[in-house]
Amino acid sequence: MTAFTHVPRRPLHRRLALVSAVAAGGLLLAGCGGNDDTKGVDHASAKESTASESTAGSAAGTFNDADVSFAQMMIPHHEQALTMAALADDRASDARIASLAGQIEKAQDPEIATLKSWLKDWGKPEKASSGGMDGMDGMNHGSSGSSGKGDMGGMMSKEDMRKLEAAKGPAFDRAFARMMIDHHQGAIAMAKDEKKNGRNVKAKKLADDVVKNQSTEVATLRTLLDRL
């Protein structure tokens, strides 16, 4: 005879209570799982939306009016510096002046291309509505670098440029050094204004380079001027 162990059964009301509890727990877990999935989808959508906005915003780079003004003014400012530097090729008698002129050309020509590309990306014109090189007679020549909003300090007048073009030898060297000091100081003031008020990271970095490089060149030009 096989022996059977008697296992007492729970009362019916207890078994029903247990089943109800298990069922309720399953519904609770299912509900929690659904909420987590929903939250996960919403979170991912938010991330995708933010990423899309970030990509669209970075396509042209974040910028403000100060960045645009800096680029629009620095282009003709650099272009005039290149014109002055080119005159040194057959007019300078001091090798140090000729070397510095070449250094200016090498640095500022690529910067002009960069500034123009930024304005194109930003959907802005290369020239400010107030004018450009055509109005340089009214700009601040000899302003010792003072520059305000919309003001290209240090620009040479047409008469200044005619005098520099007519000079030769030591006379050219001295005129070039004096004018380029004023010209650089104007660019430095504009760059400092961009560093303070601009928003575009790359434009502010270029402005920082202008301040550092042209400040060094101003010091060099002053030393040369004392010896010419």
Automatic annotation (TrEMBL):
<feature type="region of interest" description="Disordered">
    <location>
        <begin position="123"/>
        <end position="155"/>
    </location>
</feature>
<dbReference type="Pfam" id="PF03713">
    <property type="entry name" value="DUF305"/>
</dbReference>
<feature type="compositionally biased region" description="Low complexity">
    <location>
        <begin position="47"/>
        <end position="59"/>
    </location>
</feature>
<keyword id="KW-0732">Signal</keyword>
<feature type="domain" description="DUF305">
    <location>
        <begin position="67"/>
        <end position="225"/>
    </location>
</feature>
<feature type="region of interest" description="Disordered">
    <location>
        <begin position="38"/>
        <end position="59"/>
    </location>
</feature>
<dbReference type="InterPro" id="IPR005183">
    <property type="entry name" value="DUF305_CopM-like"/>
</dbReference>
<feature type="signal peptide">
    <location>
        <begin position="1"/>
        <end position="30"/>
    </location>
</feature>
<protein>
    <submittedName>
        <fullName>DUF305 domain-containing protein</fullName>
    </submittedName>
</protein>
